[in-house]
Each structure stands twice: as structure tokens, then as C-alpha cells.
Design a protein that fits this description.
Layout (H helix, E strand, L loop, with lengths): L10 E5 L3 H13 L3 E5 L2 H10 L4 E5 L1 E2 L2 E2 L1 H9 L6 E5 L4 H9 L4 E4 L4 H23 L3 H4 L2 E3 L2 E4 L4 E4 L2 E3 L3 H12 L7 H9 L7 H17 L7 E4 L3 E4 L4
The structure holds calcium ion.
Calcium ion (CA) binds next to strand 4.
């Protein structure tokens, strides 16, 4: 599907205590037409968040009064699924696991190039805008609740339940599940998923597909289901397999 040339203007909260980096990031975001609020601490971020809502939060991890990841956790605890991009100097696997479990949508490791940063922001905003388009759409096929036995996907509410328990998914995880479930049994390669779900054709993101699939699987299995809804087709890709 061809991307529409839409210009997405977002209200962004940037939480970064490195003043030089914050200035650079703000400059590029503002250049793209976004509105940016900048704070430097976890406390100020929470205060700002209580005053207004944001389309995207960009969070540093090492902040003077704590870990930026706590801001993400705080949002998720308040049932807020706004996209979160972490800026992190730490590239350890444990940090990534921490972040993914806190419901972070994407990571970028410092130092990063401006082009990469802009691409990540653009991709996150596009994904969210597509979800909102689906929410607004009158297309009953897209908006219809999808029932696969114990698994229920509710696109309009952006909710998933399994065995009557809510499964908490990030925007990306939800889009991926919804996309696969729209065509049960159809196998998608990582490149196809990157194209449809992440809006990128850069194969350097293959690991992102794998880690999102793994997260989705573990969240679905935590809900007490022994059925593997998302199956690997070795050498080809992934498919959604409803329970027989
Ligand atoms: Ca810092």
C-alpha cells in the first residue's frame, strides 16, 4: 500500500537532562513542525504529563532524579498507551528487556544520527496515525471485533482480551497482532512486516520484528493460553494461527 504524503504534527514531551542533546533534538523536531515541551527530571515530566496529553514521549534513561523508564511505567499504569521512544546510552540487553516490559515502543542508542532519529520519530507517529485512522474509519471490516475463540481483538477500543483477561499491548504490538490476524494463516516475511507495520523497508530492523513478536507471544501466553497464536514458519516468516 502506498503511503500517503501526510504531514504529521505532534505534541511531543522530551525528557532529557543533557542540555546540548536536548537542544539538538528540539531543533530537529521543531524543524519538522512539531511542538516540543522539554523537561529534565522525572518529577517535572510527571507534572507536565498531568497538565496535558502528548502524542509522543521521548525519554532519556539516566535522569538526575531517577530512571526515564519510570515515566513510561507511570503512563502505562494510568492506562495511557501514548508512544514512547527511549534515548539511551546503555546498549545492554538487560536494559532492553527492562524497557520492553515497561511498554516502550522503540529505542535509539546514543550517539545516534539525526537522520536515524528523524526516521524513528516519523515511523512511530505514522503507526499511531494509522491506528487513529482505523479508529475513525467507517470500514466495518477493519473496525469489526475479531473473535478467535478465546482471543478477542477490538480495533476500535484498541484492546485485546484472552480468556476474558485484558492483554496489555503497546501500539506497535497491537498493530502487528491486528495485521497478522486480519489474514489468518497467511505467512509474512520480516520485510513484509517491516513494510506494513513499521513503515520501513530497512532490513536492519529485522531484530525489531523478532523482539516485538517475542513480546507479543509472551504477553499472549501470560494470559493463560497454551495455544501459540503467532507461529514461526522457518525460513519464511510468521503467521497468525487461530485455535483449530
Ligand atoms: Ca542523562
Amino acid at each position: 500500500m502506498e503511503q500517503q504524503a501526510i504531514h504529521l504534527v505532534a505534541n511531543i514531551l522530551l525528557v532529557e537532562d543533557d542540555e546540548d542533546l536536548a537542544e539538538l533534538v528540539q531543533m530537529h523536531l521543531k524543524f519538522q513542525g512539531h511542538h516540543v515541551s522539554h523537561v529534565t527530571t522525572v518529577t517535572d515530566a510527571k507534572a507536565k504529563y498531568q497538565q496535558q496529553s502528548f502524542d509522543l514521549l521521548i525519554l532519556d534513561r539516566g535522569l538526575p532524579d531517577g530512571d526515564g523508564l519510570d515515566i513510561c511505567l507511570y503512563l502505562r499504569q494510568h492506562q495511557d498507551w501514548s508512544p514512547v521512544l527511549m534515548l539511551t546510552a546503555r546498549d545492554g540487553e538487560m536494559d532492553k528487556v527492562d524497557g520492553l516490559e515497561a511498554g516502550v515502543d522503540d529505542y535509539i542508542t546514543k550517539p545516534f544520527s539525526v537522520l536515524e532519529f528523524q526516521a524513528r520519530v516519523r515511523n512511530i507517529l505514522r503507526r499511531v496515525s494509522q491506528i487513529n485512522d482505523v479508529k475513525r474509519s467507517d470500514d466495518v471490516i477493519i473496525n469489526d471485533v475479531m473473535n478467535f475463540g478465546s482471543l478477542r481483538i477490538m480495533p476500535e477500543l484498541h484492546q485485546v482480551s484472552l480468556n476474558d483477561k485484558d492483554v496489555t499491548l503497546t501500539a506497535t504490538e497491537f498493530t502487528l497482532l491486528q495485521f497478522l490476524a486480519t489474514r489468518p494463516g497467511r505467512v509474512y516475511s520480516k520485510d513484509e512486516l517491516l513494510d506494513h507495520v513499521w513503515n520501513t523497508c530497512h532490513s536492519g530492523y529485522h531484530h525489531t520484528v523478532c523482539s516485538t513478536i517475542n513480546r507479543l507471544r509472551s504477553k499472549l501466553s501470560l494470559s493463560g493460553s497454551d495455544h501459540h497464536f503467532i507461529q514461526t514458519v522457518w525460513g519464511v516468516g510468521y503467521k497468525f494461527q487461530p485455535r483449530q
